[in-house]
Design goal:
The protein has 158 residues and is mostly beta strands. It contains 1 helix and 11 strands; from the N terminus they run ββββαβββββββ.
């Protein structure tokens, strides 16, 4: 272990394998000519190809969630040398803001910081599994057994 806990969260989802991604089904594309071209990697990449990008907004966790595919490390995965618990969530509507209060406790054996994240879904979306990060709060360095209440504010309609 290092002198400091990394206290971070992954900003992308790491799939278990390349073939778990929808984009892999269309790669390397369709060969459009028999004329050899310099390769730039992969297999069968020596000829001009057309690659249709059909993923649209189905990238990262939005690609894996609807299909139920399990990832190696999901979006927001915590990287710590200690453990944290989130407790006593309270939600209040204040004018055009949603205020979330949550208690974050270091329940591990090493000091560290944590980030509490709030993801939302759009109830009018075609797929309710599309989570979007809308708010977060970061603790100060918490010693083992120490806790801190965070306020996370989310603007309505954002």
């Amino acid at each position: 272990m290092g002198a400091e806990s990394p206290s971070g969260h992954l900003t992308a989802t790491w799939p278990r394998g390349y073939n778990d991604l929808k984009a892999a089904q269309r790669f390397p594309g369709t060969v459009t000519s028999g004329i050899a071209e310099p390769t730039f990697g992969g297999t069968n990449m020596t000829k001009p190809t057309v690659l249709e990008y059909e993923a649209r907004n189905h990238i990262d966790h939005r690609d894996l969630l609807p299909s139920g595919t399990i990832s190696s490390f999901p979006f927001g995965y915590r990287l710590h040398f200690t453990d944290f618990s989130l407790e006593n969530l309270s939600i209040a509507l204040v004018e055009d803001m949603v205020n979330l209060h949550v208690s974050v406790a270091n329940v591990g054996n090493v000091s560290g910081r944590d980030v509490a994240q709030s993801c939302v879904i759009n109830p009018t979306s075609d797929n309710l599994k599309y989570r979007e990060l809308r708010g977060y709060g970061k603790t100060r360095n918490l010693e083992p057994g120490e806790s801190q209440v965070l306020l996370i504010r989310i603007l309505l309609g954002s």
